[in-house]
Write a structure and sequence with these properties.
Blueprint (H helix, E strand, L loop, with lengths): L3 H7 L2 E11 H8 L2 H8 L21 H4 L2 E11 L1 H4 L5 H10 L1 H18 L8 E4 L25 E2 L7 H9 L16 E9 L1
Parallel strand pairs: 3-4
Antiparallel strand pairs: 1-2, 2-5, 3-5
The structure holds iron/sulfur cluster.
């Protein structure tokens, strides 16, 4: 149930955003290493359990050759003391992430889709690269052995198709990724979303 604490959590951060455009060829040469990212993916529960995650049945890696440019969108959520000065149980961290990071991810995706559809000058043949696994459906149909329900809306993350996110944010945006310390229950000063649009 929604309460005052949740309302306060939702107001407990500020945002900054940076956007950079580069050729897909340059991005691919500097930051794509599928063998490295797929090894990291193997330790995630979604590996082979979500159509947006490896191993892939079609050659989604061709996307790096299909599109000419990539817009990289880096968003940081800077948390205030209300968040950073406490210790949390895992369930509380999940709640905070839903009210902050995942909420901003959803809003950013809506904004990107709106720009693509309304901006006459923006190419219409695009591929949005999100963060994390595709969560359009409550449970991905891959776990039921069925085809993707919304193949046109399915969202791959940059890392799922080989993009080295930590290297990208560091070298292109001078930003180090910070992580939640799940063992200690500590949320860092900021969390980062890196999304992309191939076009
Ligand atoms: S749209 Fe649904 S079925 Fe398709 S990848 Fe996303 S969560 Fe899975």
């Amino acid at each position: 149930m929604y309460n005052n604490r949740m309302l306060r959590l939702e107001k407990s951060y500020t945002l900054d955003e940076k956007i950079k455009t580069m050729s897909t060829k340059e991005y691919y040469e500097k930051y794509v290493d599928f063998s490295e990212t797929s090894e990291s993916c193997k330790i995630c529960d979604m590996y082979n359990n979500n159509w947006s995650c490896p191993p892939f049945e079609n050659d989604v890696m061709n996307s790096w050759q299909k599109y000419e440019n990539i817009d990289l969108i880096l968003t940081r959520l800077h948390f205030n003391e209300f968040i950073t000065e406490n210790i949390y149980e895992k369930e509380e961290i999940d709640t905070i992430l839903h009210l902050t990071l995942f909420n901003e991810k959803k809003k950013l995706l809506q904004r990107i889709r709106k720009k693509i559809s309304l901006d006459e000058n923006f190419p219409k043949d695009t591929m949005i690269l999100s963060t994390g696994y595709c969560n359009i459906c409550p449970t991905c149909s891959k776990q039921e052995g069925r085809p993707c329900r919304y193949p046109k809306n399915k969202l791959h993350s940059i890392e799922s198709i080989g993009g080295l996110v930590t290297k990208t944010t560091y070298e292109e945006f001078d930003t180090e990724i910070q992580w939640i310390d799940m063992e200690k229950g500590v949320i860092p000063e900021y969390l980062t979303l890196l999304m992309g649009v191939l076009y």
